[in-house]
Sequence to fold (515 residues):
Amino acid sequence: MRNCFIALCLFSLWGTPVHAASPSSVHGALDAWDVVAAKRHAKRLKAADDANGAVALALGRLALMEGRYQEAVTLLTKAKVNSKDARAAHYLGLARNTWTETEKYRDYRTSGGHFLVRYPPGPEALILPYVDDVLERTFDALTKVFGHTPPTPIRVEIYPEPEVLAAVSPLTVTEIKTSGTIALCKYNRLMAVSPRALVYGYGWADTLAHEFIHLLISQKSGNRVPIWLHEGLARYYQERWRSDTQPKLARASEHLMAQAIADKELISFEAMSPSMAKLPSQDATALAFAEVFSAIEFMAKKGGDDVPRQLVTLMGTGLSDREAVSKVSGLSWSRFEASWKSFIRSQGYRLQRDGYRERMLFRGENSEGEELALLKERETRQYTWLGDQLRVKQRHRAAAKEYAKASKVSKGASPIVQAKLGYALLAIGKPSEAQKAMEKVASVYPSYVLLQLYLGRAYAMSGAFELARKHLEYGIYLNPFDPEIHGLLAQVYQELGENKLAERERKVHKELQRL
Ligand SMILES: [Zn+2]
Fold:
């Protein structure tokens, strides 16, 4: 193994020793996500003529990785003219697109100084305080878990719509929308689509944490960790910034696992490469994530918090994923696979008869009305539809009755129905009944934002302001562009004597209403 490691270290793709200052030494360092080393090599290269195509390519690629897009375009244009290397055209296209898209973006340095957030002028500025808080908490928590502190500031780019993410990454718009891959860690930065692009937002806060974990893993391992382990670790630890408890597989994922186990249709770890976003549907992607989550869960249950650090360190020294997993789990690879399979079979994953599966609804092409189609039982759908008709006419008492029927048919298990029921109950002044209607389903589907909003409202109405705060703050981690959440939170903070926060929320509320 050691020989293999040394060979990898000394030679880059072209067999040139990376210790000498050469264009390939820059590429070698960038391939390993080591921008600090790449810069060191580049410094010595700069004396060389950048009319030399290979030099211009290396320097241009480095500029792109450091976010100096305009400079990258200039260098890579020279590279394309003066070199036959196919990567020149590839990186030039990327640099051009990225420069065009982000030319007018603004910069924001987070309070702890660890991140540089780039965002388009406009409404995204309103969510910077929340992004700041989430990123800094993520930095504190996850650098400890993985035992790696990246060079800072780390660049984070927020795009107004999926089309921009597609323009600056290898993903296509269709892939983004079918797989629901809405954020990415690539080219030495974190990239995410603004939650404003979706009808109900999305779990942007956990998503940023997830992408940050990818950055840690890529850097610490020298980019040697395969997709399935990358995603498993990122998925399993993405909530660590806000909670120390062991994460549990989401209810909808349980369903997919139960189904795949019964149908013998588990996706193999190998099939998850080169990217989860390339799987054929949001369901296939969700199943793959559930599988890799459970694989890390399986290891973490035995090895605890040493698992992520050990796995990544071992692969950084040149061990393969199978060797590293064997070492950490104490099982041979085939024993590990078999034990993992019996572990998932023993988890008692439950199928859902009328299970709700989260879909990303994109603004401009999906509407709130489409949610109704997600209710699979005809009767549930019909009562809900009736309730909606009454709600539009402000007949909330009658609407509540219809929603209650839908709730009965769906056994109180649909977040869509329970949120509508909760809303109607609040409209007729019954906050404690609304709480009862929503609490249980909200613990199963915490990322269904309307449940957080209405529960926040219900608790605020009954004077339980700390509980209201908890739900509304969670609501912001999902849909920070919902003006109502901010309006309510302003009142709740005021009641709790948090005057500064109340003032901030009032301001955001006002601004959002103007949009
Ligand atoms: Zn990921």
Summary: The radius of gyration is 25 Å. The chain has three domains: 2-102, 106-242+249-265+275-345, 375-514. The first strand starts at residue 106 and ends at 109.
